[in-house]
Amino acid sequence: MLRQLIPRATAYKQSSKFVAAWASPRFYSIKAESASTAQLQELDASKLTVTKTTTPRELVPPSELVFGRTFTDHMLSIEWTASEGWHAPRITPYQNLSLDPASCVFHYAFECFEGMKAYKDSKGQVRLFRPDKNMERMNKSTSRIALPTFDRASMIDLLSKFAALEERFIPSAKGYSLYLRPTMIGTQRTLGVGPPGSALLYVIASPVGPYYPTGFKAVSLEATDYAVRAWPGGVGDKKLGANYAPCIVPQMEAAKRGFHQNLWLFGEEEYVTEVGTMNMFVALKNKETGQKELVTAPLDGTILEGVTRDSVLSLAREKLIPQGWKISERKYTMPELAEAASEGRLLEAFGSGTAAVVSPVRNISYKGQLVECGLKPGEEAGEIATSMLRWIESRQYGDEEHDWSYVVPN
Ligand SMILES: *Cc1c(COP(=O)(O)O)cnc(C)c1O
């Protein structure tokens, strides 16, 4: 094996094509097609069977909802095997899974997930927010870990049917929603390290209340350089379960020192990447021109492609550019933020993600100093974060008709 490889590697090195690939940042990206099982496998939503629960749960009063603590009556599941592709989708009562202890998910982390929400509009219709984006991203995650992909439209159809069935769990009030958690795991019973020959795609749902029931609460961050969340060529840009467990100890360390979340830095330059499990935005005033700039890190393989991030960027391009703002997806560093803050040019900072939409940042602990992020004492959110929450919610709840909102047929 080794003997075969060495001459080949030398041949590659000498070919100009190899050098070009090496020099290009794309060298690090693995395409969906590379995964052995990633071919689109037909998923037939019309084969759905529904078995309703005979013991419906009592609804938790909306004011008592805790994120991810209570679940609805049912779950959606679809099995896949390498030999037969996707089996018929099933909605069944919410129940335990029965898996062999040798299932590959438990040993080699064949797991990825999505986070999205169903909302109830003022007419009582159920809506999904940009579900195509979540399904597209899930296919990127699954194919990176040799799990099967699926037809996005069929899956949106199934999610709609599931959300419609669980409609009674979605409170009507603004800020409330039904959090949907599509999950895929490799189920093959084997300790051999290889592509799973079987998988399970399932969706569970949890009714959730507003992230800020009493209004925004700005958070304090700890700039983290001793632990790295994601790196070039890694999988930080995919929603793989394996990315999250290693972030808990650093988060506990930050909490011990009184900070809510980690601000993940990367490299000697101390690039700002993400905050906790959210994308990060900063609003800066240009040193020379005074022009305002909304900045977030570019999708270079170390940044999760947030649906909220994309929504914030597109709303900013639509609404802030006409007001003279510059909108940038570019690398920026912690020293750049510290300098801007010391010169009064750091206007605001916030995280973005499905759970909170936006999460304003008060300050960042960095090398023994506290970098203040533009909020006045007693102020909990800046202008941009406040506007973004309003603009995005108005599209999520259908107050503004927009093609980002997908009305679930009833
Ligand atoms: C899920 C997630 C986000 C936010 O993505 P949304 O689609 O906006 O919810 C950002 N960063 C990380 C690391 C995430 O896991």
Task: Please provide a written account of the structure.
GO terms for molecular function: L-isoleucine-2-oxoglutarate transaminase activity; L-leucine-2-oxoglutarate transaminase activity; L-valine-2-oxoglutarate transaminase activity. It catalyses: L-leucine + 2-oxoglutarate = 4-methyl-2-oxopentanoate + L-glutamate; L-isoleucine + 2-oxoglutarate = (S)-3-methyl-2-oxopentanoate + L-glutamate; L-valine + 2-oxoglutarate = 3-methyl-2-oxobutanoate + L-glutamate. It is an enzyme of class 2 (transferase). The modification N6-(pyridoxal phosphate)lysine is found at residue 239. By secondary structure, the protein is of the alpha+beta class. It folds into two domains: 33-208, D-amino Acid Aminotransferase, Chain A, domain 1; 219-396, D-amino Acid Aminotransferase, Chain A, domain 2, CATH 3.20.10. The chain is built from nine helices and 21 strands. Strands 2, 3, 4, 5, 6, 7, 8, 10, 11 and 21 form a ten-stranded mixed β-sheet that branches. It has a six-stranded mixed beta barrel with strand order 12-13-14-15-18-19, surrounded by four helices. The chain has a two-stranded parallel ribbon with strand order 1-9. A hairpin with a 3-residue loop joins strand 18 (346-353) and strand 19. Helix 4 crosses helix 5 (152-165). The N and C termini lie far apart (58 Å). The structure holds pyridoxal-5'-phosphate. Pyridoxal-5'-phosphate (PLP) is lined by residues 115, 239, 274, 277-279, 304, 306-309, 352-354.
